[in-house]
Design brief:
globular; binds pyridoxal-5'-phosphate; dTDP-4-amino-4,6-dideoxygalactose transaminase; alpha/beta; Aspartate Aminotransferase, domain 1; pyridoxal phosphate binding; 12 helices; 373 residues; DegT/StrS_aminotransferase; 7-stranded mixed β-sheet
Length: 373
């Protein structure tokens, strides 16, 4: 049986967890949390990182930080995970869904400007499959209309964007804020887990307070204030040291994990290119400005029927391939709140995108053989 995903363990996860447990400090913001945060800040140039219990939590923190309130509008793609939208809906925002690009599930940057109104507060680009959205265009719109940009970088660890200025920047370091996921289906994992990256420094102090249940506890432990108390809204967003210890074992091996995934991705791509062309399927497109972090390998089938047949054919060989998002603008929950605009490319990816199994220890040749049979 080849599952769709299998979490990869580097071997030192339980060693570091044991170390955390033995040290007697297993609540949040201890040694391992700080090691992980510093690792990300140093490697990717984020001004400040805070580990969270999920990417969903990091998105919710972002919504609180930019003071989303009843009636604010937030623009995002419809082809995304529910958390991208839920984080803002929880604070009363109206979601204005944009269509995907014709050849890629990412938000079509050319469709955003007409959706901006006096109520628009933020744009939330989602870097689908870890491939960058057109950030120059999105940041220009944000500057022109005074909006915040929150990158949903859940899938985008260790991926980059090269702007018009020729500078290569890590995804998650470009918007005002960004959210990452370490859910077991992502490249770097801790079971459940996530991180808020803060690039606009005005948010750093308040982010720490929101993270610590609305208290200035972090400043207290640094000796900056002599007592701590309730100073703002907040919640319990920080993970325990046990989770951070697991994550640290992954981070020590990030290069190895990434190179293995890229090797698998390239094998899929070169092996399937001819077959896909003959059968009317498209392979992933990586724009010139983007790198590929090999988060996901997908096919774009020519129809829903073709996709269903391919899923069945793989299942016959005990191989699990899965489709992905169901357009949020057509969801049971949001259907009636959507303004009725058709989003044809979102629909196309809902019907035709198929994700192939992809994990460190996969026997990829078996998958490729069965697809081309
Ligand atoms: C995985 C994912 C999330 C949610 O991540 P969690 O850590 O499970 O909360 C949000 N957005 C996108 C695009 C994702 O892929």
């Amino acid at each position: 049986m080849i599952p769709f995903n299998k979490p990869y363990l580097t071997g030192k996860e339980t060693y570091y967890i044991e170390d955390a447990v033995r040290s007697g400090k297993i609540s949040g913001n201890g040694k391992y949390t700080q090691k992980c945060q510093k690792f990300f800040e140093d490697l990717y140039g984020f001004s400040k990182c805070l580990l969270t219990t999920s990417c969903t939590d990091a998105l919710e923190m972002a919504a609180i930080l930019i003071n989303i309130k009843e009636g604010d509008e937030v623009i995002m793609p419809s082809y995304t995970f529910v958390s991208t939208a839920n984080a803002f809906v929880l604070r009363g925002a109206k979601i204005v869904f944009a269509d995907s690009r014709p050849e890629h599930p990412n938000i079509n940057e050319d469709t955003i400007e007409p959706l901006i109104t006096s109520k628009t507060k933020a744009i939330v680009p989602v870097h689908y499959a870890g491939v960058a959205c057109n950030m120059d265009k999105i940041m220009e719109l944000a500057a022109k209309y005074n909006l915040y940009v929150i990158e949903d970088a859940a899938q985008a660890i260790d991926s980059f964007y090269t702007g018009r200025d020729g500078v290569k920047r890590a995804l998650g370091s470009i918007g005002h804020l960004a959210a990452f996921s370490f859910h077991e289906t992502k490249n770097i994992i801790s079971g459940e887990g996530g991180m808020l990256a803060i690039n606009d420094r005005q948010f750093i102090d308040r982010a720490e307070i929101i993270w610590e249940k609305g208290t200035n506890r972090s400043a207290f432990f640094r000796g900056e204030v002599n007592k701590y108390g309730w100073v703002d809204v907040g919640s319990s967003f920080l993970p325990s040291e046990i989770i951070a210890a697991f994550l640290w074992a992954q981070l020590e091996n990030i290069e190895d994990i990434q190179s293995r995934r890229k090797q698998l991705w390239d094998t899929y791509f070169t092996s399937l290119a001819g077959w896909a062309a003959e059968n009317g399927l498209a392979l992933p497109v990586i724009p010139e400005y983007a790198t590929n972090n090999a988060h996901m390998f997908y096919l774009i089938c020519s129809s829903l029927g073709q996709r269903s047949r391919l899923i069945t054919k793989l299942k016959e060989a005990d191989i699990l391939a899965v489709f992905h998002y169901i357009s949020l603008h057509k969801s049971d929950f949001y259907n009636n709140s959507h303004d009725g605009r058709e989003l044809p490319y979102t629909e196309k990816f809902t019907d035709c995108l198929l994700r192939l199994p992809m994990y460190y220890e996969i026997h990829i040749d078996r998958v490729i053989k069965q697809i081309m049979r």
